[in-house]
Amino acid sequence: MATETADTPSAPPPVSTAAVVSGAAVVAAELERRATVKRWLLSAPALVVIIGCGMMPLLIIFAYSWTKPAEYAGVIWKFQPDAWVNVLFQEDLFSDALSPNWAYYNIYLRSVLIALQTTVLALIVGFPTAYFIATREERSRNAWLFLITIPFWSNLLIRIYAIMMIIRDDGYLNHALLFLGVVDQPVPIIFTNYALSYGLIYAYLPLMVLPLYASLEKLDFRLVEAGYDLYAGRWKVLWHVIVPLVKPGIVSGSILVFIPAIGDYIIAQILGGGNRMMLGNLIAQQFGTARNWPQGSALSLTLMAVVMIALVIYATKSQRKRAA
Amino acid sequence: MRLQDGAELAGLPAVEAKNVTKTFGAGPDAVVALDNVSVTIGQNEFFTLLGPSGCGKTTLLRLTAGFEMPNAGSILLEGQEVAHLPPFKRPVNTVYKSYALFPHLTVAQNIGFGLKMLGRRRAAVEETVTAMLKLVRMEPMRNRKVHQLSGGQQQRVALARALAPHPKVLLLDEPLSALDLKLRKEMQIELKRLQLETGITFIFVTHDQEEALTMSDRIAVMSKGKILQIGTPTEIYEHPVDRFVADFIGETNFIEAEVTQRIGNKGEIRLPSGIEVPRELGQHVAVGGKVTLAIRPERIDLVRPGAECHLAGKVENIVYFGTDTHFHIDLDSGGDMTVRVQNRRGAQDVLKMGDAVGLRIAPEAMQVLKD
């Protein structure tokens, strides 16, 4: 047995073994290096976009928020935390004492409430719409979805102006109401909270309908049938079977509507008439007429932080629930 | 027959369909799923609707559950017309082919769903759920989610969920078709046990003739929207009324025979071999007319050529099946026949391919078909 082992050709002398091993290591290292380069090259476009177009602007406004506003817009590169203090407090002109910034609190609260209201109303309008589409025949569903997305093809600004033409005091709606004799004075709609809500729901409803549709389309309607079979009427089936099953769609639709609604600028500006100020308008004002870029930057980041914290809380909560 | 009498003793039939017609679609594309179907199902009966896919058996089940409305006719539950009632107002529950368990609920919540929707108190629901878990032997799975269960376990939960509200009638839509053979056999016994223990009327839909024969009190064989025959498993198997029923259930040989004599219901028929046999005849055949006979392969005896027999032929093929052997016989009078012989007799070793044999058939095993 021992001689046989020594004679096997596959057992080479020790010297050549070391040479082969080191040679193999060199080849392996070279291959590894090439793979690394390839990985970086492949991800380069995405990295450029994420870093250049996503992170850089955020870093810039983060830096701006700690500087001094220049007299005619722009910033003076000198450290000053005033903008962050002003997010919550205002300085007394004479005594420098800090007091709560009630004017801002009002705007924050209004923004959150209007965004919440928009989300809830969009859900109430969007759910039946999505359900209707999801229960059509497969061929006609795409046509309905197509109709839902048509408004996206034209600019939001133009569509909001079009709504303004309809609802303003001498707009088409009031003309029609006067003509029909429903009212004898034009109804003031534009520049009210109603106009603002209407504009927001109109603009963001598709963002609610599409994820809801995606969930409802996957819903196994045999489960709905099982619900009916087990003594649940229409509302009970909706609440106990359909809603829990399409919850992912409800959540993503709500997030997709809430985030743009809370930061909205255009709609509040045009339909709210500027006197129904929301966070978006406040930020725009800081960068515009107020010429206080640090303040605008600090407010933008605050808004972002609030939304992010809310999402993180939701995510951890739902994850814990799934784990349980 | 026995069960029909039993049903009458217990009062009203559990389910009665009267002249029910159901069509899907309209105009020239309309499909008739049920064509003037009438059936009476007794209390505590294990009733099976058997037929190939598309025969209307599932439609009849869905009409009973309330998921479809009949175009004509009426459906009665314990004598009460229910055609206008939505599913959630009928004391009927369904076990689905796909089980349709709620994935967002636990096993216990699934089982308690119906009772909760009926507005029962929490304690009462819990009590019934525990009893149901015990009934289907799933107590340890109480707090599992549905996706953590195997197919057989899901099947049990689906059964428990449908039984928990104690419906008047339990509808089962091919509930065993997704299970493997061994589990299916177990569940057949289990279903029968549950039906006896709960005393609930079961209406069971299947295309599997073996399932139907082993579990049912009575079977309705359906084809193309019509019920062809209703009877006990023995009646259906031993006395099929027509070619479809005979062919669908078990294996059958068909041969043509000529009526040579008739007096009242009795008569004589002549087999292709020329031998005449006395049989009972239906109203539809006159002397000189042709009838089709259905003969089960296990009801034929093979005898030596020349011995007294009804038909004669040659062994064309021998197929060994373990418990028995199938002999395919080429008949001298034309056509062929399958004969099944149990292997304990050792017949498979006696005969070889090409051997001449005689076929002896008990007269009562020659079933005269309607068509």
Neighbour order of strands in the largest sheet of chain A: 1-2
The total tally of domains of chain B equals 2
Helix segment count of chain B? Answer: 10
The shape of chain B, in one word, is globular
Distance from first to last alpha carbon of chain B? 24 Å
Work out the strand percent of chain B: 25-35%
Uncertain residue segments of chain B: 1-9
Query: What is the 3D form of chain A?
Result: extended
- In CATH, the topology of the largest domain in chain B is named Rossmann fold
Q: Give me the oligomer status.
A: heterodimer
State the fourth-level CATH superfamily of the largest domain in chain B: P-loop containing nucleotide triphosphate hydrolases
What does the model show?
The complex is a heterodimer of chains A (324) and B (371). Chain A is mainly α and 324 residues long. Chain A has 2 domains: 15-64; 101-291, MetI-like (MetI-like fold). Chain A has helices at residues 2-7, 14-64, 82-88, 102-134, 138-149, 156-167, 172-180, 193-218, 221-229, 234-245, 247-262, 266-270, 279-287, 293-323; strands spanning 68-69, 75-76, 89-91, 98-100. Chain A has a two-stranded antiparallel ribbon. In chain A, strands 3-4 form a two-stranded antiparallel ribbon. Chain B has 371 residues and is α+β, with helices and mostly antiparallel strands. Chain B is built from 10 helices and 20 strands. Chain B has a 6-stranded mixed sheet, with helices on both faces. A 5-stranded antiparallel sheet of chain B has the order 13-12-11-14-20. In chain B, strands 15-19-16-17-18 form a 5-stranded antiparallel sheet, with no helix packed on it. In chain B, a hairpin with a 6-residue loop joins strand 1 and strand 2 (31-41). In chain B, helix 3 packs parallel to helix 5 (151-163) and helix 4 (122-135) packs across helix 5. Mean pLDDT of chain B is 88; it is low at 1-9.
For this entry, give a set of tags.
heterodimer; A: 324 residues; mainly alpha; MetI-like fold; 2 domains; two-stranded antiparallel sheet; 14 helices; 73% helix; B: 371 residues; alpha+beta; Rossmann fold; OB fold (Dihydrolipoamide Acetyltransferase, E2P); 6-stranded mixed beta sheet; 5-stranded antiparallel beta sheet; 10 helices; 26% helix; globular; disordered N terminus
